[in-house]
Design brief:
With 421 residues, the protein is mostly helical. It has two domains: 15-212, Clc chloride channel (Orthogonal Bundle); 228-418, Clc chloride channel (Orthogonal Bundle), CATH 1.10.3080.10. It contains 18 helices and no strands. The protein has helices at 3-50, 57-63, 66-88, 96-101, 108-123, 132-145, 153-172, 175-187, 192-213, 230-236, 238-257, 266-281, 292-299, 305-324, 332-353, 360-376, 379-390, 396-420. Helix 1 (3-50) runs parallel beside helix 9, helix 11 packs across helix 16 and helix 11 crosses helix 18 (396-420). The longest helix is centred in the first third of the chain and has 48 residues, at 3-50. It is globular, with a radius of gyration of 22 Å. One of its GO terms (cellular component) is chloride channel complex.
Length: 421
């Protein structure tokens, strides 16, 4: 290689390195903006739907009139269905992970509008996760911000994958969970470049969204009496977590596979799903929304055994109904809520019918980690994400990791046994 050619090559490499570094900072900042914007919009829609000014969504649903509880989700579902009908007539919205890993062009406007419709639906009470919207918006903004730069396909993949994780980190104030989500679930690589980028972007996004989120954990840990024996008990929960996690996945796959087409039928279908969750909320006000209400009352030990059992059944069923109706939304928090309700059932049953006394919050979150490990196939991330949501004592991370790992390994063994038959 001649001296001039070598000099030109070095300049190009230096330029790509500089642009990638700038891209890391820009993506982190934009992901924080995406997280803050979707959080503000979600809270505004929740307050408008249930007509309350302060407190949580559960406070709003509990204080709302019976008519508003029923009609609010139905009207929100109809509006979201109308929006998706109009949007899907003009654009195809691919899976974000698929678009990133296959290096497909990101339909920035369509993906951003789709994210807004998800927020509208979840804010009005739909039993779907809210985390898909900030991930999509963060990736769309990140792609727009870096579109004119000389990035390699691999660098673009890393930046957009980390943007998705940073969007998750921003809305829940979980920087480690967001970074691990990008590395383990979206990018599926432990390359040092990807890990470093994920950590930086998630930390930046969490900081940018802090004026809106106030860095508050979604769950308030009650600091109950705990025992290290919970680690062994968490492992014993694995069969239940596997059963519920596999059932959750199969139910959601069936609902997606039989979803209504992208015609005007979306409007009455999603409105009917909203009506159904509204009717159920008259008896169980924890059901509307992404599942945070179920998690909160599980951690605060506010559930009765009957209510916890009802939530284990109704939360995934209502989520599947929305998917069957053609809606789109996240699956993380519905799966977490189902697992937490299951853990509450186990703990309350043991405390009621046996001489044992176990911590309801700890068992609820351990079971939630186990179920999430099955639905996402990432036990390490599931344990860390659950821990960051509540920030209990650090040693409980071992309990959550034991529950998630045991469930994951048991699930792998069951898959292997089924494949060999």
């Amino acid at each position: 290689m001649s001296g001039r050619a070598e000099s030109g090559y070095i300049r190009r490499v230096n330029r790509r390195t500089l642009e990638f570094g700038c891209g890391v900072v820009l993506v982190g900042l934009l992901a924080g903006v995406a997280g803050a914007a979707t959080t503000l919009l979600l809270h505004w829609i929740e307050h408008l739907t249930y007509h309350y000014s302060f407190g949580t969504l559960l406070d709003g649903v509990t204080g709302a009139s019976p008519v508003r509880r029923v009609l609010g989700p139905m009207i929100g579902g109809a509006l979201a269905g109308l929006g998706w009908w109009l949007l899907r007539r003009r654009a195809r919205i691919p899976s974000l992970t698929t678009a990133i890993l296959s290096h497909e062009p990101i339909p920035r406007l369509a993906m951003s509008l789709d994210a807004g419709l998800q927020v509208l639906l979840v804010g009005s009470g739909a039993s779907l996760g809210r985390e898909g919207a900030p991930r999509q918006l963060a990736a769309a903004l990140g792609d727009l911000g870096t579109s004119r730069w000389a990035l390699t396909p691999q660098d673009r993949e890393i930046l957009l994958g980390c943007a998705a994780g940073a969007g998750l980190a921003a809305v829940y104030s979980v920087p480690m969970g967001g970074a691990l989500f990008a590395v383990q679930i979206v990018l599926r690589t432990w390359q040092l470049r990807a890990v470093g980028t994920a950590l930086l972007t998630s930390a930046l996004a969490t900081a940018v969204a802090a004026p809106i989120t106030h860095l508050q954990t979604p769950l308030s840990w009650p600091d109950p009496d705990l025992s290290y024996l919970l680690t062994a008990f968490a492992i014993l929960l694995a069969p239940l977590a596997v059963a519920v996690g596999r059932g959750f996945n199969r139910l959601m796959a069936y609902a997606r596979g039989h979803a209504v087409g992208d015609s005007w039928v979306l409007i009455p279908a999603i409105a009917t799903a909203g009506l159904l969750v509204g009717l159920c909320s008259r008896q169980w006000p924890e059901l509307p929304g992404n599942g945070k209400s179920v998690l909160a009352i599980s951690v605060s030990s506010s559930l009765t055994l009957t209510s916890a059992l009802a939530l284990v059944i109704l939360k995934p069923l209502l989520t599947a109904v929305f998917l069957r109706a053609g809606a789109v939304g996240g699956m993380l928090t519905p799966a977490l809520a189902t697992g937490a309700a299951l853990g509450s059932v186990v703990a309350l049953a043991l405390n009621t019918w046996t001489p044992l006394h176990v911590s309801v919050p700890a068992v609820a979150l351990a079971c939630a980690a186990g179920v999430l490990a099955i639905t996402q196939g990432a036990p390490l991330w599931a344990a860390l994400f659950v821990w960051e949501l509540a920030r209990p004592p650090l040693w409980l991370l071992i309990v959550f990791l034991a529950a998630a790992t045991a469930a994951h390994l048991l699930n792998q063994q069951m898959r292997g046994a089924t494949a060999s038959e």
